[in-house]
Amino acid sequence: MRKYVIMGVQGSGKGTQAKMLREDLDLAHISVGDIFRWHVRQHTKIGAQVKRIMAAGDLVGDDLVEEVVRRRLGIHDWNYGFVIDGFPRNGRQAEFFMESYDIDAVIHLELPDDEVRRRVLSRRLCPNCGMDYNLIADRPEVEGRCDICGHELITRADDTPEALEARLTDYHEKTRPVLELFRRKEVVHDVDGRPPVEEVQQAIRKTLGLPPYRG
């Protein structure tokens, strides 16, 4: 059983790399951000809380994040292991996680802040079907329209320049110290997040001693 955590600043490609690991390793991909976005689309009580927090450019509180992670891992659909992204984001969350689960490796995707800004501010979302786009590498066929359902694309509420700067500051102040906690257990693998997606995936697999990615 393999249990991995992917960490990195917003826009570093955590979700994409996690999905590629999941594809041929039979891992469960657990994305805290995706879980919260699902709640927002389904208009649940949690979704209403998250929507208010995102609109203010703030981060979801520890209690709510831990509750969501505990519920998701409690489903036990990860017979061969899991890869989790978007968590933990601070010391308290890391301690909660390490107390409950043994981790085989933490994959840290390194990305300069300027590249983060370029990537994140180019993201678009279909509010109807949830499809994600990036105007740098994954433009829709019709400008401003979803390829799947034709709905008008929007910028996420938390992808404004102001909200991004707040999250960058929060990441450097709170999340980087989490990496140091994991480094003490010698499970952190630093990977350059700047190259093309498949190159990053191959680098991750090489450092973890996994079979090469074959697409």
TrEMBL record:
It is found in: Cytoplasm. InterPro entries: Adenyl_kin_sub (IPR006259), Adenylat/UMP-CMP_kin (IPR000850), Adenylat_kinase_CS (IPR033690), Adenylate_kinase_lid-dom (IPR007862), P-loop_NTPase (IPR027417). Residues 123-158 form the Adenylate kinase active site lid domain. It catalyses: AMP + ATP = 2 ADP. Zn(2+) binds at residues 126, 129, 146, 149. It holds the Pfam family ADK_lid. SUPFAM superfamilies: P-loop containing nucleoside triphosphate hydrolases. ATP binds at residues 11-16, 123, 195. Its EC number is 2.7.4.3. GO terms for cellular component: cytoplasm. NCBIfam families: adk (TIGR01351). Monomer. PANTHER family: NUCLEOTIDE KINASE. Catalyzes the reversible transfer of the terminal phosphate group between ATP and AMP. Plays an important role in cellular energy homeostasis and in adenine nucleotide metabolism. This is Adenylate kinase. It comes from Actinoplanes utahensis. The gene is adk.
